[in-house]
Amino acid sequence: MKVLVPVKRVIDYNVKIRVKPDGSGVETQNVKMSMNPFDEISIEEAVRMKEAGVAEEVIAVSIGPQQAQETIRTALAMGADRGILVKTDANLEPLAVAKCLKALADKEQPQLIIVGKQAIDDDSNQTGQMTAALLGWAQATFASVVKVDGGNAQVTREVDGGLETITVTLPAVVTSDLRLNEPRYASLPNIMKAKKKPIDETSPADLGVDETPRLEVLTVAEPPKREGGAKVEDVAQLVDKLMNEAKVI
Ligand code: AMP
């Protein structure tokens, strides 16, 4: 079984996001970039499947600029076998990303695509679902346990108020949630080995995908600044403030 794992290059989750002064987006110049955390979880899951003898090959795909190759190298250092860079300088929307993934799936014929539940930069939570729809495949979103058994996958999903376990027939798209696993750190020998693993290059145009955006970002703004709190002397003062200042009781 081949497993395809999309890995997105995003602003590192530790970086404090700065909005551009003209409100057109966020500052990405001279900012540390890393693999989307949910994609690290997907790679870890796929590599564990390979180690368990369930998967034969793990392919990491990134759609982005030349530097997205570094993100693919990280996936290769974690244990993926080869990479595909779909090179573009445009910021592709989830639908265009899903179309690229569909084109690659048609070519590579994986039995499983493990997509992150969301990218931490756009928070869209759309790509996995759209990819499944375009392929006409089953989908199991927000996975916290995935067990592949023959032609099926049993997936435990994180739903409101608990867990739901479903069975989907393969090929399928699974989206990974935070508790699926704890991704490994790549060891130095594996980082060195990853340099020799192959990365193919293609482009949205080669895959027949139109990059034209369908959404227009009107404005991006920082969240409102938090106002300082105040200490109250006693319960009576608290109740008074809640009644007369905040007017919530
Ligand atoms: P989103 O729907 O944008 O929240 O993204 C969900 C998931 O789709 C991510 O965690 C990635 O697995 C995948 N994805 C989205 N955009 C890209 C991209 N440009 N390159 C690779 N994978 C992507």
General description of the model:
The chain is of the alpha/beta class and 249 residues long. The protein has a single domain, classed as Rossmann fold. 27% of the residues lie in helices and 27% in strands. The protein is built from six helices and eleven strands. It has helices at 37-51, 68-78, 94-108, 127-135, 188-194, 235-244; strands at 2-6, 9-11, 33-35, 57-64, 82-87, 112-116, 138-149, 152-159, 162-169, 172-176, 199-202. Strands 9-8-7-10-6-1-4-5-11 form a nine-stranded mixed beta sheet, sandwiched between helices. Strand 4 (57-64), helix 2 and strand 5 form a beta-alpha-beta unit. The longest helix has 15 residues, at 37-51. The protein is globular. The mean pLDDT is 96. The structure holds adenosine monophosphate (AMP). Adenosine monophosphate (AMP) binds at residues 6-8, 36, 38-39, 62-64, 92, 94, 97, 115-116, 118-119, 122, 124-127.
Query: How many β-strand stretches?
Result: 11
CATH class: Alpha Beta
**What's the shape?**
globular
Helix content range: 25-40%
Label the CATH architecture.
3-Layer(aba) Sandwich
Please give the largest β-sheet: 9 strands, mixed
What keyword list fits this structure?
249 residues; alpha/beta; Rossmann fold; two-stranded antiparallel ribbon; 6 helices; 11 strands; globular; binds adenosine monophosphate
Q: Summed up, what is this model?
A:
With 249 residues, the chain is of the alpha/beta class. Helix 2 packs across helix 5 (188-194) and helix 3 (94-108) packs across helix 4.
